[in-house]
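FYI - complex with iron/sulfur cluster, inputs then prediction.
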Amino acid sequence: MAWVTDHRPDGEALNACVTCGLCLPVCPTFRITGDETASPRGRLRAMIAVEDGEAPVDARFADVMSLCLQCRACETACPSLVPFGSVMESSRAEVVSQVAGERGRFRRFLTVTVLRSRLLLRLATRVAAVLQRLGVLTRVPRIGNQAEGLRRLPLASTSAVGGSWGPADGQVAMLLTGCVSDVWFSDLHRATIELLVAAGYRVEAPSSQTCCGALASHGGFAGDAAAMATANIEAFADADLVVADVAGCGAHLKTYTGSGGADVAAKTKDITSVVAEAIEDGRLPVLPHTGQPVGIQDPCHMEHGLRTHTAADAVVEAAGHVPIPIDRGGLCCGAAGMYQIEHPDISEHLGIQKAAAATEKDTTIIVSANAGCEMQLRRYLSGASTVMHPVELYASQLKHYNG
Ligand code: SF4
Ligand code: SF4
């Protein structure tokens, strides 16, 4: 059986591949395995075989698609502009529809049911926070290892949902509070809100918003991801600016389509870029030079999704520090959402590699604009450096400067 869903990959996009192989050196899974079927070109060939009716969507096809990190480094390298991220999501929607089984049901429970429910997330976080304080969270089967990279989880709710801050007459910047980021990264949301207000925005976090849908979409749950997009498009319709402080979420909002979706996509910016622009035009100050070196990690979602990484350099520099890219142009760090759980060996290999690159730079602070990368770095650096978001670093320096 060939494609069976409305979410099938676009045939024209698949056939844009001219098999030049320029994407191979930037593909982490190809670099590790040396296997053509673990390369962007190989994955596209597998999709074309289904498109042409030469192969079915079966367990083997599912494995070939599953090993991809969806880092989109191949998209940046591709001279034919093959929209790899989009065709991979479409292929996974076909896998979910035709062969997902038990694994698919577990993945859907985590990336759709839990992430869309504030109540479930709060309850799960409270349990995890207790286990974290007891020192046993890292021993929980299947997910325990990933917990090594977590920030300290809150016991009580610290949600920003439903809040509004700043002058009534400012441009309205609506904050995507996200799913786990709303409960696990409340310090980051606080820094984001403080800086937006300081830059003159009215900040609102509409309560009708939901998870951006990135993990659902990456997992192939296209219908669920579309429902999440619809809710967010409605919630952010009146915004002048939509701000995401997790690069992966911002990159996903940028993929929203349709009349309302395209409008939200056009209005979406990552907070690092918003702060860099406010510094550039003088709404936020350049702080006194400290000379302290700070490592910059470039998340794939910034580099290949939002196509910007210089914003973090500008923010760190304006905080008074010396930006030191730890692995510019390097491979994905291996976080990639559920990938750490589903392909722990490759994820670990890439995490160790990225941590080694960071360690070589000999900095005690590292910034990353993506929550998943931050957790991966913290896990594999094992306390050797403090890891935070670039705007948190700037916000804390600004507070220090203002006394
Ligand atoms: S770089 Fe683009 S055109 Fe070349 S093999 Fe890779 S996907 Fe195909
Ligand atoms: S998205 Fe990343 S892992 Fe997947 S094929 Fe492209 S470069 Fe390789």
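Residues 11-99 form a domain with the Fumarate Reductase Iron-sulfur Protein; Chain B, domain 2 fold (CATH 1.10.1060.10). The chain has four domains: 11-99, 103-149, 164-275, 286-402.
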